[in-house]
């Protein structure tokens, strides 16, 4: 059911602009409290208060959910500083990035003094983050090995045996890929956990530890008699786990060779269709590893349950040389997954202009549509932050005959896509695409209507009007851009005159 106005549609967008407004209040400069270098310098409380007095917000958060207090904890600031930030309006149990409270961040960096103070201030120790991690599990996931941290958490209610993440892993299993030796593993065993524990998918500690690629740890686990067998439930083995690597990192050939020595098969495919090439293609740029697995019989054209091939996975963010390597071993450069994404779709959205140019040169089609009917222009803007290599990608698509005037299934034009980025310079580039600036999407709104709802100043509105945007056009609720702008709190708080819209 539609509401009286369309203002509520963009409530989330307006909230995301609070950082912009806070900066505008302080003379248009960026908030120093959102700069990690500021907190790395361990500023005095007097300096913090002086900046607050200048109008900078001490409570705001960026798009990732990080706020000044989290940055202060990352910077190793003293307890007195953290306490001051909490007293200035940051609730001790405030949810930040991935729904983590401040004690999560303090524990993960081993700051026991701050942890103790946060507990005294009322920090809860029984919360979970958005990944299902308890406080002890997130601490272990961050690589923290100091037993004093875990002793303190146990003293304050941590239940190591029963705390499980979304995959059913206890803290012992969560820690396994990150440990450098078995000291922490032995500590958890001394607290009643077992080396025979498995997650909800049937994976034991050896498979999970293999993802970290620490051969010394794996050898120590073998010496303790842990199972290295293939998981019968998922048809996964330690080699498949090792191929995943860590966040943004990958394991070397020596890890896979060691696991093969134990009798594990490198040509392994899980029940969901994932093989080692699907995993390494997400992050590894070591072509020797690709050769290694292909020599072992791993299929570079295999599709997983979502229809993704190794090339599609690589297209999201891997380097050009990896894209070139896999493209030469791919049977169909225009294969699409179940979402209708081709390798070019994913490269347009996430990768570089040079990758886009290469794929087009290899026959990647520019008229591909996803399962909802969205074309490549949609993915040019469907990015976190501003599009990467925008001009280069646009030029590549134009040379290939792509029509930027075509609408998306919701009738949105390139103007509508661009306004969502809230970037005037990017919006100016769209002018040359030739799309109708007064076209309405299926909600009955023009780009000027959306600009009136989400802009924090009048520059974008004036630019659109100067380029033909109709101030008299109305939404399906009969509202003009002037009506919508009057309800825009950011414009009101910045005392922007709206007479030019009326």
From TrEMBL:
Database matches in InterPro entries: Ankyrin_rpt (IPR002110), Ankyrin_rpt-contain_sf (IPR036770)
Key words of the record: ANK repeat, Repeat, Signal
Signal peptide: 1-26
Mapped ANK repeat ranges: 98-130, 201-233, 272-305, 306-338, 339-371, 410-442, 443-476
SMART domains: ANK
Protein name: Ankyrin repeat domain-containing protein
Organism from which the protein derives: Flagellimonas yonaguniensis
Lineage of source species: Bacteria, Pseudomonadati, Bacteroidota, Flavobacteriia, Flavobacteriales
């Amino acid at each position: 059911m539609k509401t009286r106005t369309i203002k509520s549609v963009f409530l989330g967008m307006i909230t995301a602009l609070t950082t912009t407004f806070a900066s505008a209040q302080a003379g248009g400069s960026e908030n120093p409290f959102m700069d990690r270098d500021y907190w790395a310098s361990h500023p005095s409380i007097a300096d913090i208060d002086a900046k607050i007095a200048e109008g900078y917000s001490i409570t705001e958060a960026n798009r990732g959910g990080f706020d000044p207090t989290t940055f202060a904890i990352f910077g190793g600031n003293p307890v007195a500083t953290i306490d001051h930030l909490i007293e200035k309006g940051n609730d001790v149990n405030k949810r930040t990035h991935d729904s983590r409270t401040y004690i999560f961040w303090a524990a993960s960096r081993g700051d026991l003094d701050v942890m103790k103070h946060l507990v005294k201030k009322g920090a809860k120790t029984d919360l979970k983050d958005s990944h299902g991690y308890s406080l002890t599990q997130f601490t272990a996931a961050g690589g923290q090995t100091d037993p004093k941290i875990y002793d303190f958490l146990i003293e304050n209610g941590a239940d190591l045996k029963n705390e499980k993440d979304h995959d059913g892993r206890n803290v012992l299993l969560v820690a396994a890929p990150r440990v450098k030796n078995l000291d922490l593993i032995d500590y958890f065993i001394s607290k009643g956990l077992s080396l025979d524990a498995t997650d909800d998918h049937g994976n034991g500690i050896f498979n999970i530890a293999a993802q970290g690629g620490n051969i010394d740890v794996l050898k120590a686990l073998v010496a303790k008699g842990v199972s290295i067998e293939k998981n019968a439930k998922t048809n996964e083995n330690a080699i498949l786990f090792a191929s995943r690597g860590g966040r943004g990192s990958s394991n070397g050939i020596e890890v896979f060779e060691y696991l093969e020595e134990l009798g594990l098969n490198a040509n392994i495919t899980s029940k969901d269709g994932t093989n080692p090439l699907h995993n390494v293609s997400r992050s590894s740029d070591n072509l020797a590893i690709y050769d290694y697995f292909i020599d072992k019989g791993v299929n570079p054209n295999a599709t997983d349950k979502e229809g993704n091939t190794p090339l599609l996975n690589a297209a999201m963010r891997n380097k050009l040389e990896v894209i070139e390597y896999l493209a030469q071993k791919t049977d169909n450069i225009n294969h699409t997954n179940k979402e209708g994404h081709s390798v070019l779709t994913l490269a347009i959205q996430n990768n570089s202009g040079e990758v886009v140019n290469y794929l087009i040169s290899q026959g990647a089609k520019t008229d591909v549509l996803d399962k909802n009917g969205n074309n490549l222009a949609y993915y040019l803007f469907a990015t976190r932050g501003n599009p990467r290599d925008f001009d280069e990608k646009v030029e590549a698509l134009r040379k290939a005959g792509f029509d930027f005037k075509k609408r998306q299934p919701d009738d949105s034009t390139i103007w509508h896509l661009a306004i969502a980025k809230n970037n005037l310079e990017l919006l100016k580039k769209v002018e040359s695409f030739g799309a109708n600036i007064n076209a309405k999407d299926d909600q009955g709104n023009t780009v000027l209507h959306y600009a009136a709802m989400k802009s924090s100043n009048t520059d974008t509105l004036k630019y659109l009007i100067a380029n033909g945007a109709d101030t008299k056009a109305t939404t399906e609720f009969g509202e003009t851009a002037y009506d919508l702008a009057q309800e825009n709190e950011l414009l009101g708080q910045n005392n922007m005159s709206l007479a030019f819209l009326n």
